[in-house]
Amino acid sequence: MQKIPRELARKYAFDWEDEPLLRVQPGEAFEIETWDASTGYFKTPQDKAIPGLRPGFDRTPPQANPIAGPVWVEGAERGDTLVVCLEEILVDDYSWIAIGPRRGPLGESTRWPELSGEYTTKILKHTPGPSGTLRDGTMHFSERISWPITPFVGTLGVAPDREVATSLDGQGEWGGNLDIRDAAPGNRIYLPVYHPGARFYLGDVHASQGDTEFTGTAAETQSCVRLHFELIKGRRTTAMRIEKPDSLITIHASRPLEVAVETATIQLMDWLITDYGFTPTDAYCLVSTCPDFRIHVYQMCKIGKLSYVAGAEIPKRYLRAK
Length: 322
Description:
Elements: E1 3-4, E2 13-14, E3 22-24, E4 30-34, E5 67-73, E6 81-91, E7 94-99, H1 113-117, E8 120-127, E9 138-140, E10 146-148, E11 152-158, E12 165-166, E13 171-172, E14 175-177, E15 188-192, E16 200-206, E17 223-232, E18 241-244, E19 247-254, H2 257-276, H3 280-289, E20 294-299, E21 308-315
Parallel strand pairs: 1-4, 3-5
Antiparallel strand pairs: 2-12, 4-17, 5-16, 6-15, 6-17, 7-8, 8-9, 9-10, 11-14, 11-16, 13-14, 15-18, 18-19, 19-21, 20-21
Helix pairs in contact: 2-3
């Protein structure tokens, strides 16, 4: 099986002029070893998020959130849709979260000075589950608080149409740093293709995350991701979409948050109308009346130029054949 090793997974931009690190056929499984968002800097509680101590933080924007790629998908052309099928994410034996002065919404807090007056790094231990591996393992937040490891890919996408976007704060219909908890094994992610070969990138795996990623970091970890691609020829999705076994989700990143929510909902309506035979009237009324229609706020943290990421979700049981 082809693999991009971790030592090569150190790109910090989605750049359509990069030389491919891997070439794969649709349907061919392969693996990507990823760094954590700090490129390996955070290992112990003594490793603080002090910018002057972190490699690459003398640049603007900082060299953080490394990604691997590009991966060249044989047969992918402009106007196609790339379907990313995540098969498995195997995380490392720990993850970390770092807070401190001028980091996140409480980085200048006067109410709780410990949040803005000192740097804190928490190391979260991972232990194996019943399988004897971390595939069904547990994350330990403290001696008394723990939960199942629920890994997902925080940053993924294809090279944008004309611009070069950083892996730290680049976002768009093409993907980027979106921190969507539903970019998880078993789900299919639909992305537009702008360049021959699609030029796909991936990195920034989280072992778990709460809605909005409030501090600006989640449970950041290293990993090995196994995946494959499918291609929809001659039809390009107008927005990033996620198909779960039991539901559909559309994604949009914008500011203010209400624009992200409204646009994601309209994009979901378009999916229902175009692919599932709904009339515009029925789609419009469904999202307002269905008790299982949900809005997710995946990412809403104050870092660089990041927009807020919203998802609109509807269970498949409400769909009907076209």
